[in-house]
Description:
The chain has 262 residues and is of the alpha+beta class. The chain is 23% helix and 43% strand. A hairpin with a 2-residue loop joins strand 3 and strand 4. It contains 4 helices and 17 strands. The protein has helices at residues 3-19, 48-57, 169-175, 217-241; strands spanning 29-37, 40-43, 63-75, 78-88, 99-108, 111-119, 125-131, 136-140, 144-150, 153-158, 161-166, 180-184, 187-190, 194-198, 201-204, 209-211, 257-261. The longest helix has 25 residues, at 217-241. 29% of the residues are buried. The strands form 3 sheets. It has an 8-stranded mixed β-sheet, with no helix packed on it. The chain starts with a helix and ends with a strand. It folds into 2 domains: 3-119, Nuclear Transport Factor 2, Chain: A (Roll); 125-261, CATH 2.40.50.1020.
Amino acid sequence: MDEKNELVRRTMRIIKGIFQKGMGAVPYCKGNMEWRFNHMSGYGLYCSTVRKALQGCASGGGQIRHHEYHVQTVGDQVYLVSGLFCIVFGQGEENSPGVPYEILVCMVEGQAQCVHVHGGRRARLLCRVRGLCQEDYFFEEGEVLYIESAHNNVIWHCRGYRVEGRDSLKRLEQCLPGDFLRIHRGYIVNLGQIRRIRGSDIYMSNGDILSLPLRNCAKMRKTLLARIEKGFLSRQEAHSSQTLEGIDIDEVCFTCNGRLQK
């Protein structure tokens, strides 16, 4: 088993440990590690506030279903492991979408220095993109990282692939849900996929770096931070005030022409 596969395996063990009442995550975490779950944060292996909130998401017999994970090398013995998993309730049928969560783990010398978990709502169908050969691609909100303008087309940057379609950012920003924001004449970003903001640079979950416009950088940065904070708080309030089974699935669909790019 190579090093990156081992890091993914450890991330899965951490997920199992934090969503279930047990100590399975302890061997893979540093003692002074940082926890984050939506707008909540804390430090230490036994951060009860964050861990209890996470454990509550899987109460009632929820099962963990892993989807995909990516490992990015940051430095010597420093890696970022990002991925997507779901908590499935009931009988765990194959077609059940479950409740999606994203995780980002910073591994230092094989142990987690920080664990960030975001999610808690059922997956939403965002759009349908029709390819040039009449093939259709279906995206969920969490799959789309950002949308880039490319002359008379747009490029949908998704998890592990890109889709180019004939469309415009001007039209899309009128159709997309509130988790998307146009930060530049050339970009619309998914607020839930932003991992860091430094100056005018926006660091996305896949490692891509986008830039805010220099002329309106301060104003756009303030708007961006306010929208991100509002989104995190509203998601957490919705999660805590409703049962997971009672959350509706919103559907926003539209069609454009596109082609798949690896």
